[in-house]
Amino acid sequence: MSDYQIQHLHYLRSALKDKAVQTIQSLQLTSCNYQVAGNLLKDRYHNIKSIVHTHVRSLFKLPKLNESATALKHLQLLGQPTHSWDTLLIHLVATKLDHTTLQASETKT
After folding, report:
1. Are residues 53 and 28 part of one domain?
2. Which superkingdom does the taxonomy of this entry point to (predicted)?
């Protein structure tokens, strides 16, 4: 089991970038440090409040969408169907649509 954990720690290090890899960079490649690395990363990056804030901020920074129904479908992949979005989010997304796509979406509702 220890070789398995050492391999996973090595893979984890190679998959991380920037500040994330710096978080576990000083750990030696030992089987017990795989769990330590997981805990360090979870403590640093599993901050629900910060994650939600980041997603909300990215919604307000959406670029203008060009005529593309596909782009609207991608928005639905956020986990909630567009028909249940509240007025604020609908307005935010509508301001990012080009005129043709906005008209098409309004005729469907």
Report:
1. no
2. Eukaryota
